[in-house]
From TrEMBL:
Keywords tagged on the record: Membrane, Transmembrane, Transmembrane helix
Segments forming domain DUF3533: 68-465
Listed Pfam families: DUF3533
Residues passing through the membrane, by range: 62-85, 271-295, 316-341, 361-384, 396-416, 449-474
Record's compositionally biased regions (Basic and acidic residues): 25-40
GO terms for cellular component: membrane
Biased composition annotated in UniProt, kind: Low complexity: 15-24
Sequence segments annotated as region (Disordered): 1-43
Gene name linked to the record: SNG1
Lineage of source species: Eukaryota, Fungi, Dikarya, Ascomycota, Pezizomycotina
Name of this chain's protein: Nitrosoguanidine resistance protein SNG1
């Protein structure tokens, strides 16, 4: 029976719907090939395991491993400098020299007294010379100081030694007089004195010098007390007055002798710690980041539309002057932080052989000198960062910053005296001289500020000479990169 035209039309529609459903099913069940082709045509993204990324994965694996190798080598090499600064401390403690000077019975009017106290203390100090991990005990004759105990204090202030044990000229005479005559005013602490300057390096004193001095004092008091008590009892057996004298002045037997402590320049106030330690790290960081902050401003003179570029040599002069001027203002605000937290800047200087707290080196001019140290130090630190940043570029400048911080910190916040001799280059590093100059200003310790400024100005001079060369190198590198980009676009 022949089919009508309407039935043929329905069959055709049914076939088209089936074909459409089949296509949709294929799209849904396809593994991504059709979708990938569509995405490729539409410029969309691809899957993580797409074959197009195979070659890229290979190259990036190598780059990833190479970067990890560089970072690991850098961590092992540069960070080791920080750890190694304290690696030989116990072996180098002998470099912390402590003078032991015996004046007992050597200065008139006590020259006719047979000394007892002095020889005991000296022999005890000499017994400490051999052991490893001990301070550098050195026994010196009184004649080296012209028989003047104040001259020993001057030597400690002048940083010829880290501390001194001084046996006073009348140590034995006063002790014997107290026993023989019952001197009730006898003070055992008049027998000897310990002298040091804490503000020279409060960390070294607290960790190594002071503990051993305290231990030495206790050992001497105990040893001498036993010996002296035996002698006094022997005298008392043959003289009844000795026993009554001991009852009147028992301190002449126990403890018999003690040590007066003279910290010529205490580390005070505690808030001064950031000004000579951690706070100076931020001085490095601020000087480093000023390059990236000010570079866009400098580039406006040669890249902005609407005007011809500035002469290159004039740009160099502008950049140097603008950088130094920026450090001028940054350093004053950095210095004002110390003033805001009431670090003394107006205390007068004091006698070098007397205890003074607080004391500053330049009285009312101390803040101005402190500011100048920070300014010149910032130029020394910052120009080096500018030069290196222009030469090595990103991302290597991050390595430079870490290197610059670690090498400066490890030779400034820790005593180079206790470090291996390898670290002696630290005496020429900028931050070491900033720290030393700041201590001189804030605590009135022995001054080498002329040397400190000289080292800083040497850094400024060398980096100023290198500055034009580094600017030229950065321009050459930038022009070469632009040329390569233009060539790649043409191809």
């Amino acid at each position: 029976m022949p089919r009508s035209s309407s039935e043929e039309t329905l069959d055709e529609n049914r076939q088209q719907n089936q074909q459409s459903n089949q296509n949709n099913h294929n799209d849904r069940t396809d593994d991504g090939e059709t979708g990938e082709k569509s995405n490729k045509q539409d410029g969309g993204s691809v899957g993580f395991w797409n074959s197009e990324l195979k070659s890229l994965f290979l190259s990036q694996k190598l780059m990833y491993l190479f970067t990890a190798l560089i970072l690991s080598t850098f961590v092992l090499g540069i960070l080791s400098l920080y750890w190694a600064a304290l690696f030989r401390v116990e072996q180098n403690l002998g470099a912390l020299v402590v003078y032991v000077v015996d004046f007992d019975g050597m200065v008139a009017p006590y020259t006719d007294v047979t000394p007892v106290v002095g020889p005991q203390i000296v022999s005890a100090a000499e017994a400490l010379v051999a052991p490893s991990g001990s301070l550098g005990w050195v026994s010196l004759p009184a004649s080296d100081f012209n028989y003047d105990p104040i001259a020993v204090r001057q030597a400690i202030y002048d940083q010829k030694a880290w501390a001194a044990v001084i046996i006073n000229p009348n140590a034995t005479a006063l002790l014997q007089n107290a026993v023989q005559n019952g001197n009730t005013s006898y003070d055992p602490m008049g027998a000897a004195q310990i002298v040091y300057v804490q503000a020279r390096d409060e960390t070294t004193h607290a960790n190594y010098v002071t503990p051993q001095l305290t231990m030495f004092e206790m050992e001497i008091s105990s040893m001498f007390g036993k010996m002296w008590a035996g002698q006094v009892l022997t005298m008392a057996a043959s003289s009844t007055t000795i026993m009554s004298n001991i009852e009147a002045a028992p301190q002449a037997v126990n403890p018999a002798i003690a040590f007066s402590t003279y910290n010529l320049r205490p580390f005070y106030p505690p808030v001064a710690t950031p000004a000579i330690t951690i706070g100076l790290i931020y001085l490095i960081i601020i000087s480093f980041f000023s390059f990236s902050f000010y570079l866009p401003t400098h580039m406006k003179f040669i890249m902005s539309p609407g005007h011809r570029p500035l002469h290159f040599w004039q740009l160099i002069i502008w950049r140097w002057c603008a950088t130094v001027l920026a450090y001028f203002f940054l350093s004053v605000f950095y210095s004002l932080i110390s003033v805001a937290f009431q670090i003394p800047f107006s205390s007068p200087p004091a006698s070098e052989t007397m205890v003074a707290n607080p004391a500053t080196a330049y009285h009312y001019g101390s803040f101005l000198v402190y500011w100048m140290v920070n300014w010149v130090g910032m130029i020394a630190l910052g120009l080096a960062c500018e030069n290196v940043a222009m030469v090595i570029g990103q991302p290597w400048t991050a390595f430079w910053l870490i290197f610059w911080v670690i090498t400066n910190v490890s030779t400034s916040f820790y005593s180079i005296t206790l470090a291996p001799h390898f670290y002696y280059w630290g005496y020429a590093w900028p931050l070491h001289n900033i720290v030393e100059a700041s201590r001189t200003i804030l605590f009135d310790i022995h001054s080498r500020i002329g040397l400190n400024f000289g080292v800083l100005f040497a850094w400024v001079a060398v980096n100023t000479v290198l500055f034009p060369l580094c600017c030229w190198f950065m321009r050459w590198k930038t022009m070469r990169e632009k040329k390569k980009e233009a060539q790649s676009k043409e191809q």
